Amino acid sequence: GIFVMISEFAIGFATLLNVAPTTAAFGGFAMATGLWLSSSFHTSPYFLASDSAYAILWLSYLLLMNGNRRMPKVNFERRGVIRTGAIGALAVVASLVGRTFNQASAATSSSKTTSKSAKGQIIKLASLPVGGTFNFTHSTQGVPAILFRTKVGVFAYSAICTHQGCTVGYDKGSKKLVCPCHGATYDPANGAKVLNGPTSTPLAKVKVKVSGAWVVEA
Fold first, then answer.
1. pLDDT at residue 117 above 50?
2. What pLDDT score was predicted for residue 181?
3. Alpha carbon separation from 185 to 41, 137, 145 (Å, rounded)
4. What are the structural domains, with CATH classification, of the chain?
5. How far apart are CA 155 and CA 47, in angstroms?
6. What 3 state SS string does 139-180 have?
7. What is the mean pLDDT of residues 131-149?
8. Residues 172-176: what's their mean pLDDT?
9. pLDDT of residue 24
10. pLDDT digits (tens, 9 = 90+) for 27-62
11. How far is Cα 54 from Cα 37, in angstroms, rounded to an integer?
């Protein structure tokens, strides 16, 4: 999300320019920890969760700086603790708000391709050729989803990546669902199971069926 991006740039530039490095390091640690706990805590194996690695690196950097310093001055204790705590809290809030904003934006953009004929109707079956896909937004759940049609029938999956909530897309070349954020890849022909990437959870299934001339939500 935009909030996470701005916070990461601010922390990165502060670190590079040596502006309040302790505060920046703590902010980076807090943001990475917040993203890890809110998004990628269940990633298995754990070392594939990039946020946990970033949290450890930021913490190591923070401890290294403090280890190379003398005892802090008295006038730094109160202001420094307040400032560092505030930055850390803002970083955690930004990570959580950014994730929510990213999912909401994804749902909004995906809704542009949604059929508006009637509630629950997705697309006319004749408009979706065998082997084709169609992006839509679930009318009640409000999440972006991807519809597939094969010789066997129709099925759909949530387009929300199970790693950090980015919107996945269908790659026609590989015939796989790919997350543009961290490279998670899912196999739509096999229950959207994870082929590779920093997650072990398949995409959620979205129930659909054919009703007359339409593909509808089940």
1. no
2. 87
3. 18, 21, 16
4. 2-110 (no CATH), 114-217 (2.102.10.10)
5. 33
6. CCCCCEEEEEECCCCEEEEECECCCCCCECEEECCCCEEECC
7. 94
8. 95
9. 80
10. 888 877 776 666 555 555 554 456 677 777 778 877
11. 13
Based on its alpha-carbon atoms, the radius of gyration of the chain, rounded to whole angstroms, reads 22
pLDDT of the residue at 67: 66
Q: What SS3 class is residue 45?
A: coil
| Biggest distance spanned by C-alpha atoms of the chain | 76
* Residue 191 burial (CB count, 10 A): 12
Write out the two tokens for 204.
Answer: 């959620």
State residue 128's pLDDT score.
Answer: 97
Residue 209's H or E segment, with its range, is strand 208-211
Strand partners, 136: 145
* Amino acid code (one letter) for 172: K
For residue 58, CA distances in Å to 35, 53, 159, 198 come to 13, 9, 31, 20
DSSP annotation of 199 reads -
Q: Tokens at residue 198, please?
A: 């920093």
- How many angstroms from the chain centroid is the CA of residue 8? 15
Q: Which tokens sit at 7? A: 């916070």
- pTM of the predicted structure, to 2 decimals: 0.52
